[in-house]
Amino acid sequence: MNGILEPRRVNSPLAAAVARPKAMADESSLQRDVQALLDIEAIKRLKHAYFRGLDSANLELLATLFHPDVQVHFVGGDYEWRLSGREQYVETIAANFNAEVVAQHTGNHPEITILSPTEAEGIWYLHDDFYDMAKMLFTTGSAFYHDRYEKVDGRWLIRSTRYQRHYELVTPLAQVPNFTVRYLARHGRAVPKA
Predict the structure, then answer these.
(1) How far is CA 163 from CA 47, 72, 76, 115, 159, in A?
(2) Rounded distance between C-alpha atoms, residue 47 and residue 38, angstroms
(3) Helices within the chain (DSSP H only)
(4) pLDDT digits (tens, 9 = 90+) for 111-139
(5) Where does the pLDDT of residue 40 fall: very low under 50, low under 70, confident under 90, or very high at 90 and above?
(6) What distance in Å separates the CA atoms of residue 147 and residue 158, rounded to the nearest whole number?
(7) 3-class DSSP string for 157-168
(8) Pair 83, 114: CB distance under 8 Å
(9) Tally: H helices and E strands in the chain
């Protein structure tokens, strides 16, 4: 045989001792790479749960996704949210994703970078539709979320999140659309009648 397809044989104790650290280094590198992939997948699942919790106003779920000291800064065409802390963020979502709203937020094309075993950052492409029947407005638009994540007690949490709209289109509604189902009408916070 020409040796090209044959495994390399280590015949001497010295050659075996030299080969062992390289194999251990390769295994260690592989373990780091696998852990990075597991962390990236966990962060994707975290952000997907965020979008599900947001549009369903599942406040209990949302509270499990944010770091207690989460920082939020969202800038739209006619709004700016600057929020500090999990409780303020969850309460703001409860007030805005209420029984008079239909919402759909999708986050796509994640770009996640693991910075350390307990820190990561991510960019997500947002597209959303938001019907507000109390104000009779339909808003649609896009943005890029810029998130920071922190691993606490083995779980990734959203440590900070921000976006500035790339575009936003707000259209007055002449009448309430003919929705056949409105999840938040049953599960969102009731809005006091003026």
Answers:
(1) 14, 9, 8, 21, 14
(2) 14
(3) 13-55, 59-63, 86-96, 183-187
(4) 999 999 999 999 999 999 999 999 999 99
(5) very high
(6) 7
(7) EEEEEEEEEEEE
(8) no
(9) 4, 6
* Residue labelled with tokens 């659309």: 177
Contact 82, 73 (CB under 8 A): yes
Please give the model's pTM, rounded to 2 decimal places: 0.84
For residues 4 and 14, give the distance between their C-alpha atoms in angstroms, rounded to a whole number: 23
Contacts of 153 (CB under 8 A, 6+ apart): none
Tokens at 150, concatenated: 């922190």
Structure tokens at 22: 């390289």
Quick count: other Cβ atoms within 10 Å of Cβ 179? 11
CB 145 within 8 A of CB 123: yes
Write the single-letter amino acid at 162.
R
Provide CB contacts within 8 A for 125, sequence distance 6+: 107, 108, 109, 142, 144
| Residue where the block lists tokens 């500090």 | 84
- Each residue's pLDDT tens digit, 168-194: 999 999 999 999 999 999 999 998 876
CATH topology (fold) of 30-187: Nuclear Transport Factor 2; Chain: A, (3.10.450)
Q: Are 53 and 61 in contact (CB under 8 A)?
A: yes
Please, are residues 113 and 44 in contact by the beta-carbon 8 Å criterion? no
Q: Are 158 and 46 in contact (CB under 8 A)?
A: yes
